[in-house]
Amino acid sequence: MVITVEAIKKLREQTGAGIADCKEALSLSKGSLEKAKVWLKKKGLDKATSKAQREVKAGMVETYSHAGRVGVLVELLCETDFVAKTEDFKNLAHELALQIASMNPSSVEDLLKQEYIRDSAQTVEELTKGVAGKLGENIQVGRFERIALGDGS
Known about the structure:
The protein contains seven helices and five strands, in the order H-H-H-E-E-H-H-H-E-E-H-E. By secondary structure, it is an alpha+beta fold. The strands form two sheets. Strands 1-2-5 form a three-stranded antiparallel beta sheet. A two-stranded antiparallel sheet has the order 3-4. Strand 1 (58-66) and strand 2 (70-78) form a beta hairpin. Helix 3 (33-50) crosses helix 7 (124-135). The longest helix has 18 residues, at 33-50. The radius of gyration is 17 Å and the shape is elongated.
């Protein structure tokens, strides 16, 4: 089967994966865009798992306030400042803050096990590992704090 440049470009736009990975995914899936996405997702998770032991010494703190009634601080860690400055990393930090604001997890472990609010087909851990695979670095949620108006002890 011949894999067209247009198919590779379309898959790359939808997933953010590299050209070689897109071509391989399309070849293995016999040109099926959906099967190629599944393959890339699995490969991304596999890449993220292999990087999980690397030291995280960079990252960012994301802040989010929902209507002035709920506030969230989340520390998202990665290996280098370069990755911490990417839009994918910043977007992940923001998505995690939204998740924490709406779902009120009790711990980082609880957060990672939750269904992702924008896509119940994946967990927050799968979302994080997918971004880690795409960016090629270990990414971890360091800690978070959620404050809701009137919830003080």
